[in-house]
Design a protein that fits this description.
With 189 residues, this protein is an alpha/beta fold. Helix content is 54%, strand content 22%. Strands 5-4-3-6 form a four-stranded mixed sheet, covered by helices on one side. A two-stranded antiparallel sheet has the order 1-2.
């Protein structure tokens, strides 16, 4: 636990305890609500409200950071190695797949999406082909090549490879879509 995390936990605990005590005192009429209103109208009361508001914002930011960190770790593809965990970012895996599609399959215009599956990954490739290419051959080549190479090189099990041919037209007339070849979408289950 870092110093900042410890400090935020202590401040959150003190704030929660203070609000609980204040609530109990008001409910038992030991502290009258009208007295509290007068106190919070004073300079000391305003300063206390600003301090409490700032502390609440810091605690909220801390929890947002924890959620962000959890999401970034959950998006990684990991496996246990002989000496510890081996993690692969979605970006690195997408770049690796893009290289395979360009160099081994021979397609230039495509989009790659990755999705976590139980004990593996699902790969979705959207591409455009020329009229001379056979859709079934290219699709099968993409599936077989990615299923084999991704496991060989990364150790990540490929559970599914989906191929969508979005158009068939001469490559010279194609205009690349925004972000083609480097789609940044990773879905989690």
């Amino acid at each position: 636990m870092t110093f900042v995390t410890l400090l935020l936990n202590v401040l959150a605990s003190l704030l929660t305890a203070s609000l609980g005590i204040l609530s109990i005192l008001c409910a038992t009429k030991i502290l009258l609500f009208s007295s509290a209103v007068d106190f919070f109208g004073s300079a000391l009361g305003v300063a206390l409200q600003l301090l409490v508001g700032t502390l609440l914002l810091l605690v909220a930011l801390h929890f947002v950071f924890l959620v962000y960190r959890w999401r970034s770790v959950a998006a990684r593809f990991s496996q246990e190695g002989e000496w510890g965990k081996i993690e692969l970012s979605p970006y690195a895996l997408r770049e690796f797949i893009s290289g395979i599609l360009r160099q081994e399959v021979g397609i230039d215009h495509f989009r790659v999406r990755l999705e976590h599956m139980e004990e593996g990954i699902a790969i979705s490739v959207r591409t455009a082909l020329s009229p001379q290419e056979k859709v079934s051959e290219v699709g099968r080549t993409i599936q077989e090549t990615l299923a084999r190479r991704v496991v060989e090189r990364t150790g990540v099990k490929v559970k599914q490879v989906s191929v969508l041919v979005r158009s068939i037209r001469p490559h010279a007339e194609e205009r690349p879509e925004e972000g083609e070849g480097s789609d940044a979408n990773v879905n989690e289950r």
